[in-house]
Fold these 2 entries.
Entry 1:
Amino acid sequence: MGKFLTTREENYSQWYNELVIKADLAENSAVRGCMVIKPYGYAIWEKMQAALDTMFKETGHVNAYFPLFIPKSFFSKEASHVEGFAKECAVVTHYRLKNKADGSGIEVDPEAKLEEELIVRPTSETIIWSTYKNWIQSYRDLPILINQWANVVRWEMRTRLFLRTAEFLWQEGHTAHATQEEAIEETIRMINVYAEFAEKFMAVPVIKGVKTENERFAGAIDTYTIEAMMQDGKALQSGTSHFLGQNFAKAFDVKFNSKESKLDYVWATSWGVSTRLMGALVMSHSDDHGLVLPPKLAPNQVVIVPIYKGDDQYEIMREAGNKIKNQLKAAGISVLFDDRDTHKPGWKFAEYELKGVPVRLAFGARDMENDTIEIARRDTLEKQTISQENIVETVKQLLEDIQENIYQKALKLREQKTYAVDTWEEFTDIIENKGGFVYAHWDGTTETENKIKEATKATIRCIPVNNPLENGTCIFSGKPSNQRVLFAKAY
Amino acid sequence: MGKFLTTREENYSQWYNELVIKADLAENSAVRGCMVIKPYGYAIWEKMQAALDTMFKETGHVNAYFPLFIPKSFFSKEASHVEGFAKECAVVTHYRLKNKADGSGIEVDPEAKLEEELIVRPTSETIIWSTYKNWIQSYRDLPILINQWANVVRWEMRTRLFLRTAEFLWQEGHTAHATQEEAIEETIRMINVYAEFAEKFMAVPVIKGVKTENERFAGAIDTYTIEAMMQDGKALQSGTSHFLGQNFAKAFDVKFNSKESKLDYVWATSWGVSTRLMGALVMSHSDDHGLVLPPKLAPNQVVIVPIYKGDDQYEIMREAGNKIKNQLKAAGISVLFDDRDTHKPGWKFAEYELKGVPVRLAFGARDMENDTIEIARRDTLEKQTISQENIVETVKQLLEDIQENIYQKALKLREQKTYAVDTWEEFTDIIENKGGFVYAHWDGTTETENKIKEATKATIRCIPVNNPLENGTCIFSGKPSNQRVLFAKAY
């Protein structure tokens, strides 16, 4: 199957596009920029959702649902928010269609024009804070710790499956607090939740940090981010958590009576991850044979393939395969037993390699005699023949090993492709020729940041948390700097 | 708390509206016709989703996600579908806003007009069948058994929380089959899944049947429905499953090669339930004190309220309450221990009555001495003092009893309010004065059906499955009829 996929070496970008489609994760739809998430892709997303939802609830959050549409005027209320979000978006202007007079189809009914246009939500701060206004009078009403699973629309001109689509699925947390300290604590709590999810479940190491003013969420005081390195050395922003200060409370006039009976504006955070994580997952681990999925997110952790000749063997194999399947299932492992007689074992092997199933078990007539089974791991493609006796324990251990191994592999790659440089020459050489993360001194101005971006397409991904202070000079301007920041080209 | 709620007797409709808001299930938003589903309401919806999703997966379905937007032209492809759905809907005509020249806000950018308008999906048959066209070549690609959890928009003029809103949440199954028989079998399988869910989880008895031509889904050959009776005797259509024949396959040219190497159009079904079920749940069981929730869908099955004086007692009670809470949790029961010292026990009792928590446990100083506890059930409001010794078993049994009791109560009410009539006089008397379900003979014509509706507002809810044949004369036209059908006013 590998030969059907462009290799990463040949063309990393094309490899990704082909893999997403060939592994049945998603495809483009008839609607420009909108994707269809296919069952196999959606099954991975469901696993992500389940793990995240549990983590959100464990940290005290509850789910709710707010409207898809936002009145146009809401966007004008928070000045920097409108600049960032209200521009490229889907606008609902009418609420009815009618038959054309000539019977040739339907058309928009000009008489059904909305008084105020509605924006399909690109993010929900405005509609949610207009709602919170009615929920909050006193400090007793705080904190509000709400998350929403939803679809959002941003009218992107150039789209790519999962990485950048006009419509995407995400979760957005929106919390309200009585104090600045509490809101900042929440902002940091949630970026930590995201980092833990990325590393423990996706097996993707991330760097936590703060965005520069330039790269901040529109309307935020501070944006925390987790940045992951893809195999080509580019960064992928994988989740953000925003401290919004009192900006949205002021825009929607949300005040509360404090314990000290003082009237004050409410403090806010918002935080989100999206189906973009699917792109990060694919690009972090997969190889030229197809997907490599971490066991904790794989829809099927194990596939069993029987190798047989004739109907007699087939029946015996089916029985044996089902027995193993049931043993594994009873241990909480998700298993697919592919006993279809319409496809050859070789075809199946290639198929499940493409689909990234972490462990493959295969057995033939000789294995039946010897009570053995072939076990193959997707991450290293190694296989060995083992006794069937301790199959459950062996598989369990192997799934843990694979989860850990692909994390370590991604971490090692990141370490190999991470540099600290002190000159503009080194900087441009790495960004343009080698690819990777570059720690370099920066003078702290947006002007310099923009000029570096114009010259190299590299952006400041973040100022890492607990960044060591160190005196140096800006690689671009030569001005003094007291810390290195993280530069990379990004998706 | 009861006194704050309009009683059902006084005004059933107002009772419902008040209850949904006071019990914190949902509220109207700033966007006309769109609701905010609040955390408590959403927690119930999540329980519904989890149960349904499990049932869908057990019957072989997988989830996927299709675009929010549908190109306008897609609706014209299936003639009856466009009549039913494309008229009252949200139309996206532009993809950008811009700052007004005078700086007074933002406006739609006239230069960003879409070539073809996009409809916010009111239902997804068209976009899904345009996708299935690329997925299906051979009988080997069939069946496709996909479900989608999504939001949809129908521009309703008169809206009510949960019952009829412009945007609502639902699931829509869309399946593709090689034969008519298989598709019909699937249609019936899913209406049975819905009926089982309504009766087992919601504790709402339903009547399964087929819709008349007039009430069919736009584009269906046959629509199966489950109809539930609310406490005021009106019907609420709670779920539908449609046999779509080859209508959508023909509209989108979806053909397959059969086992016999013949080219044929694919057979289709679709089926859905929505947040409307929340309305059915509230109206089936709740009373003048507030919600009555079935234990299987209650976010908290048990609430524990301590009754104490002074800090010393408070500490002892907290310890005791947490111990009971942990015992119940270990048995898989969801428990809230309300140990807040900011609210009095009486306030808490009323609050959890309003919120419909099935079982309330309360204990004071004397209970501590005697090792007893007061246990109250929400459905009957009965309470008794029991020994703490078998608390887990007692609560478990009581939850089962409540689940069964509210089902039986709803069933009994339906039986009391169900009539078989043979004359127009009786018919109008029941529909107009008593309210309820009426089985009556009908001549089988749409003309008569419409005239009955005009005269009484009653509609044919369904022709029940396995309906006994019986000769009679139509209550309206006097023409011959061979079966009674189910009439009622409906939500």
Note: Chain B has a mean pLDDT of 96.
Entry 2:
Amino acid sequence: MAVYTDVNENELAAFLSDYNIGSLTSYKGIAEGVENTNYMLHTTKGLFILTLYEKRVNVDELPYFLELKRHLAMKGLLCPQPVAQKNGDMIGELAGRPAAIVTFLEGMWIRSPDVSHCEELGTAMAKMHLASVDFPMSRANDLSVQSWRPLWNLSKDRADNFSAGLVDEVEGDLALFEANWPTDLPRGVIHADLFPDNVFFLNNKLSGFIDFYFACNDILAYDIAICLNAWCFEKDGLFNMTKGAALLRGYEKIRPLSAAEREALPILAHGAAMRFMLTRLYDWLTVPDGSFVMKKDPTEYIRKMRFQRTIISPSEYGLDLAGL
Amino acid sequence: MAVYTDVNENELAAFLSDYNIGSLTSYKGIAEGVENTNYMLHTTKGLFILTLYEKRVNVDELPYFLELKRHLAMKGLLCPQPVAQKNGDMIGELAGRPAAIVTFLEGMWIRSPDVSHCEELGTAMAKMHLASVDFPMSRANDLSVQSWRPLWNLSKDRADNFSAGLVDEVEGDLALFEANWPTDLPRGVIHADLFPDNVFFLNNKLSGFIDFYFACNDILAYDIAICLNAWCFEKDGLFNMTKGAALLRGYEKIRPLSAAEREALPILAHGAAMRFMLTRLYDWLTVPDGSFVMKKDPTEYIRKMRFQRTIISPSEYGLDLAGL
């Protein structure tokens, strides 16, 4: 649930006077989203989304996220577009927080994606990877392999109580990642959080991506690895190879993977499971129950991490190796 | 925060196929509201609100609320309008819950109402009271004086721990209400929950009321009494007589109060403070912290109850008694 900051009508009116988006007729807090406060604005010019950036977001990084959305849209990719103030700024201040307005992206996120959704996701992700090749800004992934051990150390003491044996498992995995994490794969801008709730569809066609606040420069295939975990497991915890195959097929229609990228998929997917397990475990053990942060049970990603640890060949994701 | 029930795109599409409201382009959970789950729907025909009625709502009472909104709108009062299904029904089922769609009411609720807002509120409330004189349905107020003692008994054991002396106070007040609650004042349909977040304004004009799910047949002046508590206290806890005067003046422009109604205002406002104190206290002491129900600290209404207990004359609310 994501209204951490209430905005009153007077401060909102003052804020909107810096924009050319018509006159406000209503605004409502949106329940979705876990990091920031989002309002849907209805004005005489249409619908917009207002985001107030809460304390987990580093203000200095906002230009990267907003310029990236603008860059992608100029290349024809669908995502919310930052709306500039009359003076050209894309970031203002509202209720003591950095705030920005973006255009409203039509579409809905799919609660139970099917095979065709996975294929479309792969295609759109590959287009995004290609479209951002010439994006001039850069941002390190602060949730990649180098951050996992410090994050883990904050949960480690309580981890075996949460899930028996977890400490030995994670220690083993971290040593593996630190020794073997790929360093020479193609890099570029990745979304890094393409969970189903950040991908909109309209009439069963992908209508765009939202929520670029984890976007960064990293290994392109790591974005695929995150999606294999987020889109291709069934509710019973089993990996659906048909969905994995569709995701990879959709991706390779636009950007075929190199042999090195294919071979790296198992370790990347294993690491991606670790990354989401670690942030969820930390929140679960650390964030007080009374807080508004939506905590997700880390168990799902402990299971995915265990699954990924067993994978030897990318063909186990459904990747067609026939052409190699 | 009010998304108790997530709705997936397939069940929503099936539900909407029973309506003539165009084709869905997006839906988002709304954070406001404490009793039910609300989604904002955007379709090719505009904006709508979808409500899923959660377990606190009695399904048998839904026709009263929905028909009342239809009745008021026919009389020219602004409120969300129920949208009927193709077969004429106003209530369907979605995600295992009764569900209804209403038109989208433009406007915003005022976080810090000023004197002019209070006057407009009074006027609109009086119009609503007159417009519902010929509303044919009836619903008892299940949160009126007869329900307060049973509700109190569920919290009484823990009440002194919450606020020292509360048990003696409430027992005294309940005896007072049970002996003296007015029985011969004009009755009709009241909203019974006209807090600022249920009253929308657009360009500083009242644009309508929402959330009729406490509406019932009761003493008309009790609706005023609820608003004296909800609109006319400042954040420091002091009653603002200028706001009280404006509310009553606005009301009497449309529907002048009888001498008996005026004299009853102190006991009605005292009782109204009791009613909201009791539900908040019950939720505070009883609803588990982990639940999604938004609990409100009862302290604010304990203070209002104490204030109202001291009131002898309606002139203390700012009521102009010169004409009497």
Note: Chain B has two domains: 9-105, 109-317.
